[in-house]
Specification:
Helix content is about 25%, strand content about 25%. The chain is of the alpha+beta class and about 350 residues long.
């Protein structure tokens, strides 16, 4: 824990007075190795007793502690993790510490394995991600989740798949005393090298999290694959007619065949991609284009390419990509402006 603290102080150039001022500590750390915080113990008859609550409150008041972080909550008591009756009693004791100690209390709790199937919840921003008894959530004033970013989020912010594991999102899941809202905060895993001895040339790498503003990432910037995929889609629309709503329906197989051919001859690739790899590349490409606002949606069989009408001097032609293309005289458009892909699920 001390190494982690030093790593953060080094990374953010924090002075020693941040944690120690006027010969008085401002930050108290207890790893639990020498003395564990056990707010409750169970007697032989099964009764839970809370002898440590009052001493903890006294310690908080004596040292003017404004924020108490307990990590992990599960190691501070012997209660059954799935027992709503036990957990609500233990959690209420920490609420008593907050009230009588006049401090905020954060309980760090483990999560269950999230559901992979759609609509099952269990992801970031879902307080039911919490493992064990749900009564813990009832006691809490606010609940936040810390999870890895999803594949969809990575595509939204143009984060390569091989870097997605570096990013996490801190997201509000419950707020009793505030207006509802996502309040997402993104962080990136980084490491700081500490040299703890004069002869320690290589040093020791310690992991930290640093906040990032993913909204500032140029999500509109496309990879070479995405650029090629969009080019294939646009070229394919020239062979088809738009309906009265300005939608060009493209069989997905037509795009797949051309995109597969590109992947087979992709520059810088020494190994031929497998059929599974190519299917996955197409799906991720469409997902990324959708996140960038180029594609509204997609399904396994069709791509619906939307052409937005805009005034144009030539009644039966349209211009995009710097070239003029003929349009069908029956199409009630004077030209084609912005283009996008609308895919129906």
């Amino acid at each position: 824990m001390e190494r982690r603290l030093v790593a953060y102080m080094k990374h953010y150039e924090m002075p020693n007075t941040t944690v120690y001022n006027e010969k008085k500590p401002l930050l108290f750390i207890n790893s639990g190795e020498l003395k564990r915080l056990r707010i409750a113990k169970r007697l032989k008859d099964g009764t839970l007793v809370f002898d440590a609550v009052q001493p903890l409150i006294a310690y908080v008041l004596e040292n003017n502690i404004q924020l108490l972080i307990v990590d992990p909550f599960a190691e501070t008591h012997p209660a059954g993790e799935n027992s709503n009756e036990d957990i609500v009693t233990v959690a209420a004791m920490f609420r008593q510490v907050a009230q009588k100690g006049n401090c905020a209390v954060i309980l760090v709790h483990h999560s269950r394995k999230p559901e992979k199937s759609a609509g099952q919840g269990g992801g970031g921003g879902d307080m039911n991600l919490s493992r064990g008894a749900s009564s813990l959530l009832g006691v809490a004033r606010s609940v936040w989740t810390l999870t890895n970013i999803t594949e969809k989020e990575a595509a939204t912010f143009n984060i390569p798949e091989n870097e997605r594991h570096l990013y996490v999102v801190f997201e509000q899941a419950k707020a009793n005393m505030a207006a509802p809202g996502s309040n997402k905060k993104y962080f990136k895993r980084n490491s700081v090298t500490l040299r703890l001895a004069p002869d320690d040339i290589d040093g020791e790498k310690v992991g930290i999290l640093e906040p990032v503003e993913l909204d500032e990432v140029q999500s509109s910037k496309m990879t070479s694959r995405e650029t090629k995929l969009l080019q294939i889609i646009k070229e394919t629309t020239l062979e088809l007619k738009a309906d009265t709503n300005g939608i060009v329906i493209i069989p997905r197989i037509n795009i797949k065949e051309k995109f597969d051919h590109y992947l087979d001859h992709e520059p810088g690739k020494d190994k031929l991609p497998t059929p599974h790899t190519k299917r996955d590349a197409l799906r991720k490409g469409l997902l990324s284009l959708k996140a960038k606002g180029v594609i509204k949606d997609f399904n396994p069989t069709e791509i619906h390419f939307a052409v937005t009408p805009q005034p144009h001097e030539t009644p039966h032609s349209a211009t995009w990509d710097g070239a003029e293309h003929p349009t069908d005289t029956t199409t009630p458009y004077k030209g084609c402006g912005d283009v996008g892909v609308d895919i129906l699920i």
